[in-house]
Structures are given as C-alpha cells and as structure tokens.
Amino acid sequence: MSKNHPLVTIKGKKDGLILQLDDQCSYTDLIQELKQKLSARNQAYSDGPLISVKVVTGNRYLTKPQQEEIQSLIRAEKSLFVAEVESNVITKEESEALLKNQQLTPLIKMIRSGQVLEVTGDLLLIGDVNSGAKVTATGNIYILGVLRGVAHAGLGGYRDKIIAASVMKPSQLIIGDIMNRSPEEPEESNFDPNRGDHLMESAFVDPETEQIVIDRLNTLFRRSKVEN
Fold first, then answer.
1. Which of 75, 128, 137, 223 has the greatest CB tally within 10 Å of its CB?
2. 85 and 109 housed in the same domain
C-alpha cells in the first residue's frame, strides 16, 4: 500500500459524501484502507442523521460481489447508506445493450388494430398506426403516416424522447412514465394527402409542467436551439 497516495478519499458535499476509490491499487489494499477510513470516522457519523454516499470507482471494474462487499462495509457504519456507484467502466453486455438502445429501426408497414410493435432504440415507421394498435420504443418514435392508435416512446422511464407523426390523431400517448389522457372527441384532421401542406407534429414532455405537449416539429427544433 502506498504511504504517499491515499487509496480512499472521502469528501463532503452538500447532500452527503463522495467516496473516491483508487483505480490502480489491488482490491485487497483498497478494502483494507476503506475499513480503516470508515473506522476512523465512525464516531462522526454514528450519532447523526442518515448520510448518502456516492461511491466513485473511476476506471476500476468492480464485480457484483465486490460492489456488495463495499456497500456492506459502508452500511455497517449505521448512519451511512450508498446512494450511487459511479464507474467509467461498463461490461461488454452493458455496452451492447447501450448500442442497441441507440440504433434506429426503419419499417415500412401498417400497424393494424390489435397489433403491437415493440422496438429497442428509435423507431422510424413509414405507414399508419390504426386505432386499436400500439407501437412502443425505448427511444424516439417517428411515424411517416397517421397515428391513430397508442404510441409509447422512452419505454423504461426515459422522458427525454419524442413521438412525431405526419398526422397526430392518437388514442393515447406515453413518454417515459408520463401518460396523456385520451381525447374524448378527437378533432377533425385537416390533413389532405393531395394538398400536401400538413405540418408534422411532435409530442414531448415539458420539463416545467411534466406534461406531454403536442406541437409542430419545427417548434421542438427551436426549443432545442434555445436550450443549447
């Protein structure tokens, strides 16, 4: 164990502690110093309220048993609990899942009543979604056609996704865990395929109201430019 370089650094922050672990030393040395640091600070934490701890592992990959051991050591200090474990390293399986969630799936078909289409990542559908049908995606949903059924983007709780359609007449929209109510009497569409002047619309979650908003697609682009 290095005498000049601490293997475990504990820093205070407004809402808890940050526990920085060295990512170059052996795991055995790391655990030994972690026990010493926690034991030395035990008196400071034992009588106070619960304190959240963010564990930062850097470029060290921790196996599940190693993560459980570190969390167990921290929880043993009574007033401490692990709120988050942050790492720069992910497994091959996690990397493949991340890439899959970022892919775009293009389809040319009509989704008929009673059918359910499920996609990982973004969905580009060239065709209509009829009433009684449902399309879901972990990413964004883009429909070059009429959306009359149910569309659920951001499956898994991702509220930053959008649903866009050439003609937006859904029975229900869901983005992440936010659902809009079904319209009682849908407005008559002004879409005329022979005229070709209908503007594509998009649905997104307004972060201020946490409600789904439907607006023209170019309005969403303007909002993105202002935020960036």
1. 137
2. no
